[in-house]
């Protein structure tokens, strides 16, 4: 792209300057990730939605049952979670020493990666068969902790909420909202395809 010298730019006049500004703003949105689009979605209290779903008999019990790959996070590293076909789901806070980067084994969602705090990782995962997926990644298996969940429906629609790590997270119809039974504040979204791929349902919602 050629940029005119300042004196030539001034001679364009107000109309051309407005056109250039509009073009610049248009380019700034090309390829924008999904969180930047979240401004168009309503922000909702996911805790209240979970209580409403429970009252309506839409909450079931599940557990993660598929092995993952994980590696130590670099201190200060920010992990951006991308879902295949959807774009950016969320991004982490800067990693601290001991945190782990987890990679799902789910081709349907692009084997998305996300950051797990050290204490949570020890609670949620245990070493697998010892095989290394690569020089950096090692297999881990879920500890079979049971979680509660409901599936986002038309009554909720697409929305944005604040994830437990303080960043915005988009939820869409068909996604699962998952909650730790002993820590209701730990409520987060699992993409619909990822939920089917990596979780097993233990108790279906009584409402169907």
Task: Describe what is shown at a glance.
This protein has 208 residues and is an alpha+beta fold.
Account of the protein in words:
The chain is α+β, with helices and mostly antiparallel strands. The chain is built from six helices and 14 strands. Strands 13-12-9-1-14 form a five-stranded antiparallel β-sheet. A five-stranded antiparallel β-sheet has the order 6-5-2-8-7, with helices on one face. A hairpin with a 3-residue loop joins β3 (80-83) and β4 (87-91). It starts with 5 loop residues before the first helix and ends in a 5-residue tail after the last strand.
Give a topology summary.
Elements lengths: L5 H5 L3 H16 L4 H4 L8 H10 L4 E5 L3 E5 L7 E4 L3 E5 L8 E5 L8 E4 L1 H7 E8 L5 E5 L3 E6 L7 E4 L5 E4 L4 E5 L2 E8 L1 H7 E5 L5
Antiparallel strand pairs: 1-9, 1-14, 2-5, 2-8, 3-4, 5-6, 7-8, 9-12, 10-11, 12-13
Please tally the β strands and state the result. 14
Please tell me the overall pLDDT: 83
Distance between the termini: 57 Å
Percent in strands: 35-45%
Query: How many helical stretches?
Result: 6
Order of neighbouring strands in the sheet with most strands:
13-12-9-1-14
Instruction: State the helical fraction.
Output: 10-25%
| Rg result | 21 Å
Please write the string of helix (H) and strand (E) elements.
HHHHEEEEEEHEEEEEEEHE
Unreliable spans are 1-38
Specify the structural class: alpha+beta
Shape: globular
- What's the main sheet like? 5 strands, antiparallel
What keyword list fits this structure?
208 residues, alpha+beta, five-stranded antiparallel sheet, 6 helices, 24% helix, disordered N terminus
